[in-house]
Specification:
mainly alpha, 4 helices, 53% helix
C-alpha cells in the first residue's frame, strides 16, 4: 500500500523515531525494550511532543488509526506510540 493512495487525515512525520534510533534498532527484537525507552524520550521533545498533543486532542474527539510499515506487529514504533497515547488519555 502506498501512502499516496491512503485517505489519511494526517501524516505526522514528527512522530517518527529519529533516523539514528531507527537504524540502531534495525527491527531487532532483542533491542525492543531499549528502543521503546529511547523512543518515548524522543516523543517528549519538540517537535514530536506537539504532534503527540495533537493526536491526544484528536483521540478525545474520534477514533484514531495508527499505521506503520514494519512487518513485525509487536515491535514497531506504532506500538510504543499507542502506549504513550493510552497513558495520556487515561489522565
Amino acid at each position: 500500500m502506498r501512502k499516496e493512495t491512503l485517505e489519511l487525515d494526517a501524516w505526522l512525520k514528527d512522530l517518527s523515531p529519529s533516523d539514528a534510533l531507527r537504524r540502531w534498532f534495525n527491527h531487532d527484537p532483542e533491542r525492543w525494550a531499549e528502543f521503546s525507552a529511547r523512543y518515548r524520550v524522543e516523543l517528549r521533545d519538540e517537535p514530536a511532543a506537539n504532534a503527540v498533543r495533537e493526536l491526544v486532542a484528536r483521540a478525545r474527539r474520534k477514533t484514531l488509526t495508527l499505521i506503520y510499515a514494519a512487518k513485525d506487529e509487536q515491535h514497531n514504533s506504532a506500538v510504543v506510540l499507542r502506549g504513550v497515547l493510552q497513558r495520556l488519555l487515561a489522565r
